[in-house]
Design a protein that fits this description.
Elements: E1 3-5, E2 9-14, E3 21-27, E4 35-39, E5 48-50, E6 56-57, E7 64-66, E8 72-74, H1 77-85, E9 91-95, H2 108-117, E10 119-121, E11 127-131, E12 135-138, E13 143-147, E14 155-162, E15 170-176, H3 181-186, E16 192-194, H4 195-203, E17 216-219, E18 222-223, H5 234-247, E19 254-261, H6 265-277, E20 282-286, H7 289-292
Parallel strand pairs: 4-9, 11-19, 14-19, 16-17
Antiparallel strand pairs: 1-10, 2-3, 3-9, 4-5, 6-7, 7-8, 11-20, 12-13, 13-19, 14-15, 17-18
Helix pairs in contact: 1-2, 1-5, 5-6
Binding site for Zn(2+): 78, 238, 242
GO cellular component, one term: membrane
EC number: 3.5.1.108
Length: 309
C-alpha cells in the first residue's frame, strides 16, 4: 500500500549553495498526493511545486525544481532520496526559502527522523514504473542508462566514477536497493568536492554554505574534512544517493536497472525525459505483495542506520 509519515518533522540548517538559513518541515499527506514542496515565504498562489521530473530546471551541482509561477526549490535530491529510500510515497514539504538545508551533506538526518516518527500505510495501492526496454543518454562526460531488471528484482544500481584526485580515484559500486539497502549502504554518504574547485564554485555563487562539516573536501590524496571518510568509497555511494533522489522525481518507484558512468543530476533527469518520451520502454503497474518487498524502504528498521563518528 501507499504510505506517508506518521507526523510532521522539521529540519533547520543552511543552504549548501546559498549559505542562507533554511527551515523545512515534512508533513503527512493523503493517498495519491505524491510529493509536493510549498514555499511558505511567498504568497499562497503559486507557492506549490511538484517534486516531478518535468519541472526540473538546468542548474549546476544540484537539482532545482520550478513551477509555472516561477517559484523554485533547489538541492532537493537528498530529501527526495531519503523519502524514496524509506518507502514514503506521499508528503507535503514546507520550506521557508529557495534551498533545502544541507544538514551534514547526506540523507541520514532525514532518514533518522523519518524512521523515528514512523511510516504510515494508506488505503491505496502503490503503482510502479516497470522498465521494459533500455533507454540511455550520453554526453562528452559520461552516460546513464535504464534497462529491465532481472525477474523478481526491484531497483538495481551500478555506478562508476573517475576523479584525478587519488583520495577518490576510480570507484565502482553495484547495489540492489531492495529491502532497506539505501538506509544501510548509502544514506550516510556525504556530498563531496575537490579543493581545487572551491574558489571557482564560490566565484560563481555556489557552495557559499559549504563547510568541512557538510561536505567531504579532497585535495590530491588527502581528505581535508575532519574525521576523514565514512566509507572508503563514500564518493560513489553519494553519487548513487543522488541518483536515487533524482529518479524519485519520476513520481513512482522504478523497477529496473540504473547504470551511471560519470553521471550527475542533469544526466539522470535527461534520462527520465528519454524514458517518458518512449511509451514502449515502460509500463505503470500495480505493485503486488511480492514486488513490494523488493522496493527501497520495505521492512527497514531504525537500527539499520549506519553508525559513524
Amino acid at each position: 500500500m501507499q504510505t506517508t509519515i506518521q507526523s510532521a518533522i522539521t529540519f533547520k540548517g543552511f543552504g549548501l549553495h546559498s549559505g542562507k538559513p533554511a527551515c523545512l518541515t515534512i508533513r503527512p499527506a493523503e493517498a495519491d498526493h505524491g510529493i509536493w514542496f510549498v514555499r511558505t515565504d511567498i504568497s499562497a498562489e503559486g507557492a506549490k511545486i511538484p517534486a516531478r521530473w518535468d519541472v526540473v530546471q538546468t542548474s549546476p551541482l544540484c537539482t532545482l525544481i520550478r513551477n509555472d509561477a516561477g517559484a523554485t526549490v533547489s538541492t532537493v535530491e537528498h530529501v527526495m532520496a531519503a523519502l524514496a529510500g524509506c518507502g514514503v510515497h506521499n508528503a507535503l514539504i514546507e520550506i521557508d526559502g529557495p534551498e533545502v538545508p544541507i544538514l551534514d551533506g547526506s540523507s541520514v538526518p532525514f532518514v533518522r527522523k523519518i524512521l523515528a516518527c514512523g511510516v504510515k500505510p494508506l488505503d491505496a495501492p502503490v503503482f510502479v514504473i516497470e522498465i521494459l526496454a533500455p533507454v540511455s543518454v550520453q554526453t562528452d562526460q559520461g552516460w546513464a542508462r535504464l534497462s529491465p531488471s532481472e525477474a523478481g528484482q526491484g531497483l538495481e544500481m551500478d555506478f562508476h566514477i573517475d576523479f584525478v584526485d587519488r583520495a577518490i580515484g576510480r570507484q565502482n559500486k553495484h547495489l540492489n536497493l531492495a529491502n532497506g539497502a539505501f538506509v544501510r549502504e548509502l544514506c550516510d554518504s556525504r556530498t563531496f568536492c575537490r579543493a581545487a574547485d572551491v574558489d571557482a564554485m564560490q566565484a560563481a555563487g555556489k557552495a557559499l554554505g559549504g563547510t568541512y562539516e557538510n561536505a567531504v573536501v579532497v585535495d590530491g590524496d588527502k581528505v581535508l574534512s575532519p574525521g576523514g571518510l565514512r566509507h572508503w568509497d563514500e564518493a560513489v555511494r553519494h553519487k548513487m544517493l543522488d541518483a536515487l533522489g533524482d529518479l524519485a522525481l519520476a513520481g513512482a518507484p522504478i523497477v529496473g536497472r540504473y547504470e551511471g558512468h560519470k553521471a550527475g543530476h542533469a544526466m539522470t533527469n535527461a534520462l527520465l525525459h528519454e524514458l517518458f518520451a518512449n511509451k514502449s520502454a515502460y509500463r505503470i503497474v500495480s505493485c503486488d505483495a511480492a514486488l513490494a518487498l523488493k522496493l527501497p524502504g520495505a521492512g527497514v528498521e531504525r537500527n539499520e542506520i549506519p553508525a559513524f563518528h
